[in-house]
Specification:
This protein is α+β, with helices and mostly antiparallel strands and 272 residues long. Helix content is 32%, strand content 19%. The chain contains seven helices and twelve strands. Helix 3 (117-133) runs antiparallel to helix 4 (193-209), helix 3 (117-133) runs antiparallel to helix 7 and helix 6 runs antiparallel to helix 7.
């Protein structure tokens, strides 16, 4: 059963034939340059000239499996296996019965969003602290990459853009309008913990306002972004200021630790 389709992959819900547990299978399928062969399984390049691009994209895809193998945290999607077959690659992870954060927020009035601080955002901060200590940055934090299951547990999903930032590896450009930091639009720009701080703050901004932060292309012209408090009066001035600091365009001017956001969330919750 197909769950979602992106430019480089297809995500299926499957079943482990030994345990009968439900699982997620992510298949590498770069639809712009690949097609199914006559067996409806094997992946082939549309043109011989695209083989180099196909191979490079597949290596990037397998890099996600390498990242996930390093991680074991209650709030991070759990890796099971990965393998290559049918001239493509697959990543297998645990299945979670739930909905993404952007869907979940629809059921919670804006003036009650502070109730999510302890259950969603602080656990996510803890998960990010964990991966950062491993030398990894996620680089694609956004509401659609955060899952809340039927038991109200939260999980960070999709490590397809993640890198080992301490290795100074060149980062491919993967961006999401409104949620990606300025440095993510360049292969040469240094990326690090502050890159994830931007994505997390943008996600928090949306969660507290129902407004996606102004995209980088527009902010480069105006240089400004409206505060969270101007869109949600229930939020404390401190939290609003910390989020704005975390969304600074220039890395050197941006909040340098998720602990500031965590403290602001705890203080905001205390005054409710």
């Amino acid at each position: 059963m197909i769950i979602s389709v992106s430019e480089v992959s297809i995500v299926y819900k499957g079943k482990n034939i030994l345990t009968e547990d439900q699982i997620i299978i992510k298949e590498f399928y770069p639809k712009s340059i690949a097609i199914r062969d006559l067996d409806n399984k094997t992946i082939i390049n549309r043109l011989p000239s695209s083989k180099g691009k196909f191979d490079a994209l597949k290596q990037n895809f397998l890099h996600e499996a390498i990242i996930l193998q390093q991680l074991s945290h209650d709030n991070i999607i759990k890796y099971i296996s990965h393998f290559e077959e049918n001239n493509t690659a697959y990543i297998v992870t645990e299945y979670y019965d739930g909905i993404t954060l952007n869907q979940y927020l629809k059921s919670i009035p804006l003036h009650k969003r502070h109730s999510l601080f302890n259950s969603i955002f602080i656990p996510l901060i803890n998960a990010l602290h964990y991966i950062h200590k491993k030398g990894i940055i996620h680089r694609d934090i956004k509401p659609s990459n955060i899952m809340i299951d039927s038991k109200k547990n939260v999980f960070l999903l999709d490590f397809g853009s993640a890198i080992f930032y301490k290795n100074n590896e060149e980062a491919s450009i993967f961006t999401t309008p409104g949620y990606s930091a300025l440095e993510q639009y360049s292969k040469k720009a240094k990326q690090g913990i502050k890159t994830d701080i931007y994505g997390f703050a943008a996600t928090l901004y949306y969660s507290l306002t129902d407004v996606v932060p102004i995209d980088i292309s527009q902010r480069l012209i105006t240089g400004k972004i409206s505060s969270v408090k101007s869109n949600n009066r229930k939020i404390t001035l401190l939290l609003s200021m910390i989020i704005s600091w975390s969304l600074a365009l220039a890395q050197r001017k941006r909040c340098f630790s998720l602990n500031f956001i965590k403290l602001a969330l705890l203080i905001d919750k205390y005054f409710k």
